[in-house]
Structures are given as C-alpha cells and as structure tokens.
Write a structure and sequence with these properties.
Four copies of one chain form a homotetramer. Chain A has 355 residues and is α+β, with helices and mostly antiparallel strands. Chain A is 27% helix and 27% strand. Chain A has a four-stranded mixed β-sheet with strand order 1-4-2-3, covered by helices on one side. In chain A, strands 5-8-6-7 form a four-stranded mixed β-sheet. In chain A, strands 9-14-10-13 form a four-stranded mixed β-sheet, with helices on one face. Chains in contact: A-B, A-C, A-D, B-C, B-D, C-D. At the A-B interface, helix 6, strand 11, strand 12 and helix 7 of A face helix 6, strand 11, strand 12 and helix 7 of B.
C-alpha cells in the first residue's frame, strides 16, 4: 500500500467540500495527512474568477475544524492549486494528496511541497520570482526526498499576480502580469530541473523555445507566495502509484495525449478501456492558443473573440481531447502554458494506480 | 475522376469568398455546377448570429456575378447550410459541392438537393414541417438517383426558425422553437429513411430514443424553407469519393469518432496519419450537451453557465475531439442534435477521397 | 441619533469584508447589533454566480469571530441578500443594517426581519411559498413594530431556488424556477401588504398586472428559506433616516427614478447635488427587460443575445440611469422584477439621512 | 424646408435595409442624394463583430440597385459609419443623411464628407494617419462650405484597423492598434479644428488631456481609408435643423447629457418631453471606461471582466443614461473615446428639428 494517497473528488459547487468531509468523517482520510490540493472550479478562469478563493476558503474551514489549526496557518502550509474553468466536457473536481509518513516503502511516487517567500507585485515576472521559485522547487524536492532532477515527473506551481498592479510592477496590465508570473515560475522550475538552464527575465514571453515539459503553472490573485508541489520518484516511498508526463506539440496532438497515459502505464488505445478507467487517479494538462492564429495552417478564432476569452476557448478544446482519452471529464486543464511544453502546445501528466 | 467534387475552402471572415472566387477565376470550379454549400462561420451560433446571413449574401453575390442569375433565384436553388461557432480548435471554412452532370460513372457518391415549400412559423415543430421535410428528402434522393433508403449516408437539412414567434407558433420562445424545428426536421429525415418510422409531433424533444444516425440539422432565421442535401450511393455517378458516418454514444466517445473515419476508408489510429490527411475532404459532426447534467457520472457545467452558451461549450469540446482525429480544425460541428444520433451523443460523417 | 444605522461599504472582491471588520475593530459598529446585510457582488448574477455564497461565507466568518456564534446560527438569523452583477457604472458594495435596541425614539424608520420555514424545491413557485412569504412579512413587520401595511416602505426578500430541480418541482428548468420563486415571493409580499390581494399560483408570471411597488426580490441557491427584511415607519424608532420608493413605468423612466429620490427627501434635479450626495445611504432598484422586445416602440436586443445574458444587459442599463441620478455607482440593482413594479418597468427605493 | 434631411430608421437585423428601401420606393428619399449613413448594429462591437460589414454590404446592394452604380464606387464615396453593440436599452437603427443640392437656403446645418487616402496598417496610430485625417476634415469642411473651425459642431470619423497587424504596425495587438487608430483620428480632427493644436503620435493614448469635444471616432476592419463626416453651420444651407454637442466629465455626468440636448434646442427636464420627442433626429455619444478603475471614488468592474468586454459594459451604461434623456433607445453610442471628450468621460451630440 502506497503512503501517498490521491483522492479524486467531485464538487457540487465551488464551496462544496462535502466529499472530502465524508472521507474524513469515515476515517478514510486523516486531515492531518493532507499535504496539497489541486482542483478545477467552474469559474471563468480569469482575473475576476472568485471560485478559486471561495473553494480555498471552504477547504481551509473544513481542515481547520478537523485539525484545530487556524485558517492562516493551514493556508501557509498546504498548497491549494486551483484553476477556474470547466468548459465543455470538463467536470469540477479536486485531487487531495495525503501522505502517511509512518508508512514507508522501498521506492515509489513521492510528493514534496514548499512555499516561497511572499512575492510582491514588483517582483512578479522578474529574476527575483524566477529565483524564488527555483529555490522552492529544490526545497520541495528535498521535502520529498527526491535527489536527482531526472527523477522529477512534474512540478505544479501556483504563482501570485496582482489585480491592480502599481507603477513598480513590470506591467500595469494585470492580464499581462499574470502571464509574466506563469512564465517566471516556469523558468524557476526549468532552472531547478535543468530544463531551462539559462533563462533570464528578458526571455520571458519572448523566447518561447525555452520551456520545460515538466512545469505546470497556474496564477491567481488568491495567493501571495509561489506554492510548489513536486512529484517524482524517491526512496522511502511505497510503490503502487505511477505518474507519466508527455508534451503536446500542438493543441491537436492526440498522439501526445495518448503517450502521457502510456507513460503512466495505462493502455490507452486510443481511449483508456472501461475496465482500466478506475486506475486513472488524476490528469493534468496545460495548453495555449497558438499565437500565430493558426493550427497546422488552419486559422483559429480563439485570440480575437470579444465574447469568449481565449483561455475559455482553449480549455474547452484541450479538455475534451484529454477527457476523451481518459474516459471521463475530471481533468485538470489550465491555459496559460507559457514556457510549459512546446509553444502552441503544452503537456499532459497522468497519475495512476499501478497494476 | 468523380463527377461530384468537394472543395474545402478557408475564409478570412464571414464575408470572404475569395478562395472560391479564385477557383472560379482559374476555371477549377464552374459556378453553374455548384449545387450546395456547407460552411462554418465564426459567430456565436445562436439566434443573434448574423455571420450566417452575411456569408450567404456574399456567396450569392459572387455566384450572381459568375452566372448572371439574380440573388433570389440562386438562394432558391442552392442550399447554403451554415452553422455559426468555431470555438476552440475549429476553423472557419466552407465545403463547396459541385456536380458535373455530363461526366457520369458506373456508381459512386451522389448528391441530391431539394427545397421544401416555405414553412411559416406556425408550422415549425409540427407535423406539417415533419412531412414537408420527409417529402423534400425523397425529392432530393430522386434528384440524386438514390433509389433505396439504405444507400443514403447522410441528410443535411437547414431548417427555418423565427426570431419573434407569434401566438400561432408552437412556442413563443425563439430558442425552443429553434430546437423544435431541428427536431421536426430530424423526424422528417427519419420518416423518409425509415429510421424513425412512427415519430409524431408529440414526440419531438420528448422521446429522445427516436433518432436517426443519418440526420444532421441546422436551424437559422436566414432560411424560410427546409433546404435538404442528401448524400448516398447511386448509379451513374463516378467513383473516387467515399463517405462514412458513425454515431457517438456520448460526447467523449472517441471510438465513435474513429469509426466514422474508418467508415470513410481512412486509417485513423487514432489520428489520421499526416500522409493521409489530404484525403479528408469534409467532416461533419453533431452533438448535444447531455441533458442529465453529467457525462459518464461526472457533472458537466454546460447547461447552467450564464456567461457561455451551452452550444458554444458543446461545439468547442466536440469539435476538438473530432479535429484531433481528423488532424485539422476545418470541421463542421453543430450543436442541437435533437433526434440526430443517440441522446447525449451525436454523429460524425466523413467525406474522403478514395485511395 | 437614529437607532437604525445604515453603513454603505465597498468591497475589493466578494470575499473582502475588511471595511466592516475595520468598523467593528474601531467600535463604530457592534457586531451583535447587525440585523441584515444587502449587497451587490461582481458575479454574473445567474445560477452559476458563486460570488454571493462566497461573500456570505466570508461575512459569517467575520461575524462568528466577532460574536462567538457559530456560522450556522448566524446564517439562520441574519438575512444576507446578495445580488450578483455590477455591470457598467455599478460598484460592488454592501449595506449593513445595525439596530441599537436600547436607543429608542418617538417614531422613525424601522427595520424588521424574519425567516420563513425552509422551502423545498417542490414548494417553490407555488401557494405554499406565497403563504410562507406572506407570514414571514407579517412576522418581520411585528419584529419592527410596524402596525399598518401602509407604513411599509419596502420589503426585500431573498428567496430560494434549486440548481437541479427534480420532478416534483413546478419546473425542471432551474432558470424558470428561479423566476417562479421571485414571483411567488412578490405575491407573498403583496398578500401581506394588500397590494396583491387575490394572487394565486396560477397568476405567477402570467398576470403581470398583479404587482407590488414595494416588493424587491432576489433568488439564489445559497438560501433554503425565504429571508425577509421589512422597512417602514414605526413608533419607538429614532428619527433621522428617511426612505422613499417609486415605481418605474419602463426602463427609461428617468422621472420615476428622480421621484424615488424626492420621496426620500433628496433634491435630485435631475442628479443629487454634490453637497447632498453624502446623505444617500443606500439605493435599491429592480427592473426587467421588456418582454415585448421593444421599449417605447424601439426594438431592444436584451432577450435574444446568445453572448450576454438578458439580466446583465438590464442591470447595466438600469444601474447606470439610477447611478447617474444618485451621483455614484454603489447602487443595488437586481433584475428579475416579476410582479415587482409595473411590467417592463420596476421600482427604485432610496434610503437617506434626513436633513 | 432644409436641404439636409436626416432619417432615423429601425432595422430588424444587420442585413435589414427595408425601411430605407421603402422610403426610396415611395420617393421620400432619393437614393442619389444619400451622402452618408451612421448606424448602430447589434454585434459585440469588437474585432470579430461582422454585423458592421454585413450592414454595409446590404446598404451598398440597395443603393446599387437604386442608382445603378457599382458596389465599390458607392463604398468609395458614401461614408458608412457603423458601431456594433446595442447593449441594454439601445436599439439597432441607422441615420441616413441626404442632401438636396438644388434646394439651397441662407444658412443652416451643413454636412460635408471626405475620404482620406487608404491607410496601410503601418501608418495606423502614427503621424501619417493624423495628417491624413486632418486633411480629410478640411476637405469635408470645404465640401460643406464651412469656412471657420468654430462653426463645426461634430466630426465623425470611421478609421481603419487591422485584424492581424504585421511587424510593420505600431502594435501587433489588433485591439491596441484599433485604439491607436481612434486616437490618431481624434488627433487629426483636433489638428484641423484647432482643438489639439500640438498633438504628436507620441501623445496618442498617453496625454489624455489632449482631446477634442467635437471628435467622434469609430474604428473597424471593414474600412481601409479614414471616412470623414463634418457637421456644422454654413451659408447656402436651408434652416430647420439644429445640432448641439456637450462633453461628459465622466460616465455619470447626467448634467452633461442634458446640456447636449439643450444645445440642440430641446427642452430636456431632465427627459425630453413626450411632445418634443419627435424633434430628436439623431443622438451620438462617445464614452470610455474610466481607466483608474473607479468612478467618483467607487470601484467599477468594467476593465477586469473576463466574461464581458469593457466596451460592452460601457455602451450599456452610457447608452441607457443618454436614452433616458432622449426618451428612446435609438442612440448611437460608441466606446473607445480616446481623446474624444475628457478622459474617463466623453461627449454627446444631438441633431434635432428646429421649432
């Protein structure tokens, strides 16, 4: 039995933690063992998406009741990475990562977490943030006992942004600053893992060929520090769980999606067979509207739509492709994949139960 | 060489017919041979989507200049089936169907067209419309020389609706009347083909188990009659083109999508290989947000989103799945699949060049 | 000094109660005296607007810390009426109503509150709800010490609805059920006040000439009972505050808006002069897109817009007109004015400081 | 009888010119006398609003039939200024300006038009465009016989933009380039009229205190040149029509709106009385979301809404205020008021029949 447990839970609305509450009540999850939460809420995914803050507040309220810790202390030690937007086939859900430190094993899937120092708006999208994230990634690796960069499967970061950036910020446009924050965090991951050895703040959003296939970044106003989760393989963890990641060359790269499931040991052909679906514990995907305005030569309309935000377009499309392979819609799909996977493409990460 | 030609053409905006104009100018398409157009414009796909009317007017202007016929006469004989909405990976494009009556063959893919009598708002979603469509389908089969219902691959209908239905209409809600129009047209197709032998107007939008896997219906205020295209196999047509259709059991039925490509003779595994992509001439798909609010047990959010119309959600998701198999985004995807394929699912139809 | 105090406070986001927290910290508001909150959050105002629930949870958390009561008890005695949607000139804000029972006066503006029994989905939009609301209005009048219906200025109700109504509900369409809930609550108010003496559940959404100019109803999934606030004049309350209400004949009835300010003793001509603006304590307005599709003979496009919900259209327009008279954008504007003011119109209520 | 006639006509959809066709058929308008059209269509007003192009094509088709001129020649001599977006109380309509050169008078309201040379994307938002517009304004003044800048009431410009600006453009972001185009055109107007004597391209979108209260600019991809209409007073025109313009200090400046009606000789108090409404021939307004994020100190949410474009917010609010004074919703309201009226505010222009 693994000492890392992953629970994929539905929510009826962004304030609904009843599924986790039930697991805690029944003793299936010990609240004190919860190390991180990654979730997908049904907001618009943009600056004015408050479903993320609502979920986080509701989660911390539940955990506070269960553990007796106060809300601020919990928020300061448990990364809660939320992405808004469940367009199309996607389904609101969250992944709860619990670690039983007592139960060890020879080697298995490991999770480590870390928080950077608070990152003021002035540091967002700058060298300061890149370095803060790189250090937090190394801290999280140490927390997990992961000793080599090549043993890391995925780093998930929740990076801060600012609703009304002041004159000291790199950009006064909050949407651009949000993108710079994701970019800097990706560079921080790439620096720690060696995937982007020489990225500087001038390269952010410019040199898109500098990217990591193992960095997945969300950004939101509801966090003030960079919150980092590292998944990888390490000694001392129990076997039983697998994880795989694969890049997508572009939005339509169905082969890339299938490859990620294969990397996690799942026989997708092309969809995961019904009998194997329960083995899928969690799926994360990042993608980006192709900036040239065309995919494989055919014009797309994601970037110039006054009614529908480009990221909502993107998540609906990418989410459906990934969900059609996974066999269900509880897939974490997040836009804003700057420097996370190939430009115009992205990446997919799958957590599964081993056979 | 087939006497039915299918041209898939890009548009830069809904009034851009320059790709067709160039083909006509170069003599590659003879304007007088154009029998029908099916296109996907970048509107919202709803009642207030005027990109369909704009494209149609622009098309008829071009054809009027090329043939000397006046606009009304052209609009009365050439079905122009447009669906608005190119969410996500979809790309604005149109299919031009041209028939060279002089060049015959032993047996091949055939196209026939017909217009019903004008359908007033009072008849929409009622027995009168069902029967008008059934007759028009039979007329279009006769036009194509298709003698048996089992030889029909797909019937595409553009059915009328009303922006401000009066008291004589079956529903005063224009969106509901639009759905009733699609439903009645599907029943008309099903009646003509024997797929829905006993459907009555009371069953419309109620008995969803009455459906045809070969009916694809759009509805819009820009037409006043039911415009019908029938595709199938008939004697006297040249070989060289294939067509295949397959139902989708639900929105995530990736196997169903792959099956449609296989039915058209394309080796999708799961995506159509790069070397075969040019053989794909046209792809049509219909789908529908699952009314129960869940897909395979996971809650979706398409039906209760105040910001984003359910059909925009649906097209973005379905379109991406189909495009990921087709290998490109010029796919005609249309929501509102009432009685067109299994409930909560839909259908995919592929036109291809034979090997 | 009045014993009813009204505080109009800004919020930076739907979870931001810092303005109220500061007042409590400084002793300017005693948490135990807070009787009700009415607020406008920056959501979309529809079924999937979770900013209301987020604000409510945040408010109750603050009050729980300040009073020691638990969250459920607070939610069960303090009506929190939120309306989502701050389109155009509107500004997110909330009104806090605090009552100092010790400080009495001869006669003045009074506030009473009451909660009905929980209203299951099966009772929404039916006689049961009408009667529950009527009783709660009488209870709230008694709570305020208002003895005569003509002394009531305004009744504000937050009525329940259901995200996924079951077969027992009057409508399976959650949006229609939401409208029925508002309608039934308006009838309940009208029954208690004598404004709609003979309304039955069959008249709901049908006989729009049955309305009250003193009923303002919101509906949301975040409440399970009908929460009622009654404002009026009663003995035992201190003078110093005024309130006025006036109907709007249609959306463009600028004279109606001005009349409401005059009724509250404010010299709007047409705008409230700068020197008098601080006297405006709170402004509430209800309105409705004209169902005929035209206002004063000119077609409007609120009802057929696939991209933008009709209520968002309405709030942006109505809010701007009212705010242009009030002189600022902290105006509570809520759509869905069925039976609240004249059909196609609505009503405006103004709370002010007396001279 | 004036020799300038203004007809305000409704449209049922963006391709509906039936109201004008009827006037031409009945001889009430001579097609050859039509000099310009200004209209408001029900699109989203953004880059992907194709209702403007659809209306223009439909108008030119009608005029081509009526005059025998070809479409390109008509489009090259008749400015057609369309703004998309009829949010809230606004109503789709168009103003047709016809001039009977034969019928002269001593002095009256005059109209002149001019087209600049085509403006390539590389010149948009640069000195070249400013100067082209300034010259076109002088040409249009000469066309009208207006000899002094102070006799000009309003200059309306339709300025070009680019859907996919190349590397030579001042900005690669089409939305920013659209704003630069409006700004440069406003500077051109200001240069010609002396309102912005020293504006340079570096001041565009930066020095917002450089503005003209008589410049109203729209921008769209459907034009390639700057199309200019100048309204003012000149000898040789018949009396009978009046026009007035007034700036709005901010979005809530109701007094400014009323002042514009007074300037046109209409007794608004605050609304135009019913008996005088027929005298209102046309109303134009420009406005802009306050960039600081607050109006009179209260936070607004127009600029950070992922679901609803800032200009749609703005038009709904401004349009309702202006329409509530005008007494009806056929008001041309256009966002993007950079350098057109005070920053954060805008302007209103009213055309009326003299008493």
């Amino acid at each position: 039995m693994p000492n890392l447990a992953i629970h994929r839970l539905p929510m009826a609305h962004p304030g609904d933690l009843s599924a986790l509450a039930a697991l805690i009540d029944r003793g299936e999850v010990r609240a004190a063992e919860i190390r991180a939460v990654i979730g997908k809420t049904e907001g618009n995914g943009g600056l004015n998406d408050f479903t993320r803050g609502y979920f986080t507040q509701s989660l911390m309220l539940l955990l506070s009741r269960a553990t007796g810790e106060d809300l601020a202390a919990l928020a300061g030690r448990i990364p809660c990475v939320l992405s808004g937007g469940t367009e199309g086939a996607l389904s609101p859900h969250y992944l709860v990562f619990a670690v039983d430190r007592a139960a060890a094993g020879p080697r298995g899937l490991a999770l480590g977490t870390a928080f950077s120092a608070p990152t003021p708006a002035a540091d967002i999208g700058r060298e300061a943030q890149i370095e803060l994230v790189a250090r937090a990634v190394r801290d999280a690796m140490a927390d997990a006992g992961i000793t080599r960069a090549e043993d890391v499967v995925l780093v998930q970061v929740k990076a801060p942004c600012a609703q009304a950036p002041g004159p000291e910020a790199r950009s006064g446009d909050p949407r651009l600053l949000m993108a710079l924050s994701r970019a800097a965090a990706a560079f921080g991951v790439g620096r720690a893992l060696g995937d982007i050895p020489d990225g500087t703040e001038d390269d952010l959003l410019r040199d898109l060929l500098k990217y990591s296939n193992r960095a997945s970044i969300s950004s939101g106003i509801e966090v003030t520090a960079n919150e980092v989760l590292v998944f990888g393989h390490a000694d001392g963890w129990a076997p039983g769980l697998t994880a795989g990641v694969a890049p997508m060359a572009d939005l339509l790269d169905l082969d890339g999606v299938v490859a990620a499931f294969h990397a996690a040991g799942l026989p997708a052909a092309p969809a995961v067979p019904v009998a194997q679906r329960a083995r899928v514990l969690g799926v994360l995907a990042k993608g980006e509207p192709e900036k040239s305005g065309a995919i494989r030569g055919a014009r797309h309309t994601m970037l110039g739509d006054t009614d529908l935000d480009a990221q909502r377009h993107l998540r609906g499309a990418l989410g459906a492709i990934v969900a059609s392979v996974a066999g269900q819609g509880q897939v974490f799909v997040s836009g804003g994949a700057e420097h996370q996977g190939p430009p115009g493409g992205g990446l997919v990460c799958v957590f599964a139960r081993a056979v």
